[in-house]
Design brief:
The chain is mostly beta strands. The longest helix is centred in the N-terminal third of the chain and has 7 residues. The chain has a 17-stranded parallel β-sheet that branches. β9 and β10 form a beta hairpin.
Amino acid sequence: MGLITATLISSGATFNVDESNISKLYQKGSVSVIEYLDAETGYKVVSEASEAAADLFSQASRLFSTTLNGTTIYLNADRIVRTESVNGLARLSYRVDGDTVETLQLGVSEADLINSLPSDASGGGAAAVYVSASSGDDGTGTRGDSSLPFATLGAARDAAIPGDLISVAAGAYNTNNANLGKNQVDWFFANGAEVVAETTAPIWNDVPQGYCVYGYGEFNNGLLQSPYLVYFNQSSSKISIQCRSIRGNCTLATVWVTNSGYGKYVEAYTDIQNTETGNFGRLLYFQGGGTGKVTVKSPLLQNTVQSLGFTGSTAEQGTVITCAGNSYDVDVFSETMTNPTVASLSAIYYGRTAATGKTYVEGDFIKSFSSYQFYYAAISHQGGEFEHKGNATVVNGSAYYASNLGAVNKFKHISGLYQSVVGNAI
């Protein structure tokens, strides 16, 4: 795969970008726009170039031309997750970066799309498996036929083979006594699709070769208590989950990671919560090894567990983020991370001395109550490298507490305000 050479509008400098890192290329007025991943940082970059998009496309071997919203756009054939036909036009599941999958409704037929791809591009041989709570039938459901959807998630999962996409229509579903994760089988949940766990097994489990979940699914276990809703423990997998919400009633943690594998990504567009009533559950729990980073994103991360823990593992109860001995890095992005329960003694972030990975957290910590500085501060830092960008507010107690000098030396508050209504902020 080659380099594409372009001239930056901003500086007039010439730069090269590996086409494998390009996600989108298109014309915007008199300039072309290149969206790509920076090879060093892994972050998305958007640059404007003076050359025409068509001229830059002529330098590429893995980009293909298609139509999106009436405009010509050049996409990367190697980022295709799945193609399917919807009302005569191609719907493309497309990986815009390492973790995020977009659904693009194109202005060409699926046949024309496939004909425009390099012969060895992905997406051509997979099938869609459809699920509808209102019109589906497990007896007649047929893989690859949108007119014959399945009624249950379990039946669709059993019918799917590696490379397939399971497309779930709006409606109420349960897990049919099975974990939904299956090797190289991806899921798309339409707006209004709700999944309730009917057993103590997690909805999303780990499998050796991984999968992607995207769309607008709402995942919960209702009144049934279970250890966790999302459970990752495989060293060989890379998994991405994007949904509307994850609301657990979990005795251990709503999201539990014991091995990061080649990377795990969880994003909920509204909230991730734990409402367990037994005073034990965490929200996000990280331990073990792995080579990839774990990333969690949601505007609200909330744990309403009323913890009465004091030391050791009991101090983790009711936490929003616990790093209990992970050697992999963790990134958490949120607007608000909170335990609003007045009587809870737990920290919002709790890092054990055994944690050796780097944790980066962006967002505000809000804690209604804290008795003392020690384990009950909003941030209780004992070990591991920890960086925070945001505010930390505690009604009574400390915003930040470090149990040892080694932890202090590994702490960085990038920006924001730490404050305590009663007590010392730090």
